[in-house]
Each structure stands twice: as C-alpha cells, then as structure tokens.
Amino acid sequence: MNSSTVTTTLPSTCTSKNETIVSHPAATSMGALILSAVFLVGFPGNLFVIWSILARARKQSVTTLLILNLAIADGFLMVLTPFFITYLVKMDWTMGNVMCKILFYLCLANMYASIYLIMLMSLYRLVSVVWPNRISVITGKRTVMRVLGVVWLLVIIASIPALIFREVKPKGKGAGSVCDSFHDEDREIIIQYTLEVVFGFLIPYGVIVVSYICILRRIRQTKFRRHIRSEHLILAIVLTFCLFWLPYHIINMVQVSSTLFEKCTTKRTLLDTIWQRSRAVTSTIAFISSCANPVLYFFAGKSYIRREGLAFMARLFERTGFDSTRKSQMNSQNSRDKDKDAEVVLKDKDADSSTNSTSNVKSAKNGK
Question: 67 in helix, strand or coil?
C-alpha cells in the first residue's frame, strides 16, 4: 500500500515542472487582453509625449530630458507588444530562437532603463531641494548627456542574461514551443532572477526611498512649504512603477525559492505551480507601467489644455524645470533682499548720525 502511494504521488508532484507560462488558457487570455489595452493606450501616448518635448517644448530641463528618455524606452517597448500578444493568443512561440532572445532582452532593458531613469529623477530633485546651490554643477548639457550615456550603457550590459538564458524549447507531446528561461542547473535560476530583483528593484528603489525621505525632511524644515507640481508628478511616476513591477519581482523570488527545495517535493511543486500560473499575468501587468506615464502626464497637465491646446504637455514639462530654477532664484532673491535691507539700515544709521551732527552744530550756534 505504501509503495503504490509513492508511485502514484511522486509523478503527480513532478508534473507541474513540465508546465510553462503559456500552459494555462485563462492566464494567457487575461494577459493578451491586458497587453492589447496597454498597446492601444501606451503606443500613441508615448509618441505624443516624445512629440511634445521635441516639437513643442521651448526649454528642455534636466527633468524633461529624463522624461523624454523614459518615453522613448516605453514607446519602444510598446512596439514589441504585438509580438507578445501573438505569443499569448497562440500559446505557442513561432518566431524562432533569435527573436526569442532579442525580444526578451529588449523587455529586460526597458525595465532597467525605466527604474534607473526614475532614480535619476529622484536624485535630481534631491539635489535641487537639499543642495540648491550645487544644482548648477549638474545641470550642464554635457554633464547630463554623459550621465544618460552611462545609464544606457549599464542597461545594455545588465540585460545580457536574457540573451544567454532565453531560448525556444518544445512544450512536449507536440504541443508547440515556448520561449522561456531554461537552465541546466538551479543555481543559474537563482543568479538570473536574484540579479533582476537586486539591481532592477531593491537598489534603485532604495536610493529613491532615501532621496524622498531627505526631500520631505528638507521641506518640513523650510519656512515656506509650497506644493510643487513636479514633485507630485515624479512621486506619482515612482509609485506607479513600483505598483506594476512589484508582482513581477515577487514571482521571481517565488521561482528562486522553489529552486532551493529538492526536486519533486511538495513545497517545490506548490511554488512551481504559483510562478508558472502567475508569470504570464504579472509580466503583462508590468507592461502597464509603460502606458501609465502618459496618463499621469495628462491628468497633471489638464489645467493647461484650454490655454495651450496640443502643447499642454510641453508646458507641463517646462513647468517641471521651472520649480527648481525658481527655488534658486528665490534663494538668490532672498539674499539680495537681505543685502538691500542691510544697505537700508546702514543708510538709516548714516542719516541718523548726520541728523544728530547737524542738530548738535545748530545747538552750538544757538548757544553762542
């Protein structure tokens, strides 16, 4: 009786390992619907953002350049969505091994580019709020372009694991093919997804959280607590990215955790079932972040629509660069006002002293 139980239970605990992310029609159908909606909103939305900055913006601040690069990355990802919609609808990868590696490499590059551009936005706001006197050092066009070049270079390098580990393999029993991460050893799974979580989420988000803690502390210490439009916009971008990418990284850690257990154990089978049935949905949810930013820009700049028309978004982006410059101008203006006040006080003292001397002379003459 025990032997029969083992023989019937053991194969069933190993069957989930043969499943893939496109083995479940409900998950793939939901993913295809999400991606279709994302494409319809995100593709024209990001194109409009790029056009607004390049054709309509009179001045391009540091924040505007970062938003432009973010829109380019998101817009390029939107171009790739029809390939993934086809993959989910057919539940079969028919585009070959080269396209498998390239498409997922570009997706991973978009993830890294987005989070690190958002991190740069947060760091720039940190410097402009906490150290406004040093903002002129990092706002030079050459400095900004160099920083952006380094970021894109790091993105290209960090996305290489997708080229190494992604490949097309048959699903088995003549059921077609799948483009997925396949590894000869479990440690390769741990390395790949741990790197994504650490360098694609934990480190940049740690920098972002620390930056905004310092910003909020600085704002509380200031005498005039103004509501800054660009501060709210960047914070909304940060929270939106976290909301849509966090499920993806959680599933990554679930898959890493499953590899820590021995094969064909109950715990590993349960974790395998979770990530296999959830990855298609969480991956498509991550795509939403690329179409959410244009929506955020629309609501943030809707007050400009009546006055500016199609240029409303360009005026919004110009405003994001105006806040930091206005702060430095206010600081310099305050110092000028202090200097003027000091000059007025000195003049008053001089006038008082001259008046006193004149009165003393007059009294001396009267005494004579």
Answer: helix
Which amino acid, one-letter code, is at 281? Answer: V
For residues 61 and 325, give the distance between their C-alpha atoms in angstroms, rounded to a whole number.
10
Q: How many helices (H) and strands (E) does the chain have?
A: 13, 2
- Cα–Cα dist 172/250, whole Å: 28
The pLDDT assigned to 99 comes to 92
| Average pLDDT over every residue of 137-148 | 82
- Token pair for 128: 């402009």
CA-CA distance, 143 to 140, in Å (whole number)? 5
CA dihedral 56, 62, 63, 67 (to 10 degrees): 60
Q: Give the 3-state secondary structure of 209-232.
A: HHHHHHHHHHHHHCCCCCCCHHHH
pLDDT number for residue 156: 93
The mean pLDDT of 174-185, rounded to a whole number, is 71
Q: Are 256 and 81 in contact (CB under 8 A)?
A: no
Which architecture, in CATH terms, is 20-367?
Answer: Up-down Bundle (1.20)
Alpha carbons within 13 angstroms on the beta-carbon side of residue 322 total 11
Query: DSSP string of 92-144?
Result: S--SHHHHHHHHHHHHHHHHHHHHHHHHHHHHHHHHHHH-GGGHHHH--HHHH
Q: How far is CA 32 from the centre of its chain?
A: 23
Q: Residues with Cβ < 8 Å from 343, sequence gap 6 or more?
A: none
Over residues 108-130, the mean pLDDT reads: 89
